[in-house]
Amino acid sequence: MISPKKIAKIEARAKGGDAGAIYDLAQRSLSGDSFPKDARRARDLITRAAEADYAKAVFLLGVWAQTGEHGAEDPTKAAAYYKRAGELGHARAWLNLGILQQVGLGLDADLNAAAESYKKGAGCGAGQAAANLGNLYETGMLNKGEPNFEDAAHWYRRAIQLGYAEARASLDALHEAAGIPALMTDTPRAKSSSLWKRLLGLK
């Protein structure tokens, strides 16, 4: 909780149309930080920030549309929000859009489109997007069932560079199976997980 003076400054910036300040107030209304919890007010503020092309707000509307929080589940609308947020530079939005495209939730399944979204997400710094792309190459999903271990290794390495530690287990397994050099082989291996857990980033 911050001081009333700082809250007043944030409110003044929000009244002036500062999308970041509007988003800040929305988050405080959601959490009850400095304001009573008010989900309706928070959604109105998030919508205002999204209309001003604030990427975090657009992404959050996508999450809400996908999960049904603050309204009905609508994965098609979620995909549209994720695409817009991604175009505004939000890395996780490209990751989430890629997952929807890969599994065909809210739109037709399209592995090539998913791969492009993952590439864009990796380009914005999303390590999990790079790891998901590596998995598409490893399993042959992008080449009629024919694995591409070299490209898979490239994207797993990229995921590690971006801080997605779980990709190290995938790279190590690929190293053992196909003899492709792995990075940081002297470090402890991460615990292996199932395909879907690796794909969706679940613990």
Give a brief outline of the structure:
The chain has 203 residues and is mostly helical.
Structure write-up:
By secondary structure, this protein is an all-alpha fold. The chain has 11 helices and no strands. The protein has helices at residues 4-15, 19-31, 39-51, 55-67, 75-87, 91-103, 111-123, 127-138, 149-161, 167-178, 195-200. The protein is elongated, with a radius of gyration of 20 Å. 39% of the residues are buried.
Radius of gyration: 20 Å
Structural class: mainly alpha
Q: Percent range for helical residues?
A: 55-70%
Low-confidence stretches: 183-203
Strand-and-helix sequence, N→C? HHHHHHHHHHH
N-to-C CA distance: 31 Å
Into which percentage range does the β-strand content fall?
A: under 5%
Largest sheet: none
How many runs of DSSP E, i.e. beta strands? 0
Q: What average pLDDT do the residues reach?
A: 88
| SS summary, helix count | 11
* Apparent shape: elongated
Identify the notable features of this structure and list them briefly.
mainly alpha, elongated, disordered C terminus, 203 residues
SSE layout:
Blueprint: H1 4-15, H2 19-31, H3 39-51, H4 55-67, H5 75-87, H6 91-103, H7 111-123, H8 127-138, H9 149-161, H10 167-178, H11 195-200
Helix pairs in contact: 1-2, 2-3, 3-4, 4-5, 5-6, 6-7, 7-8, 8-9, 9-10
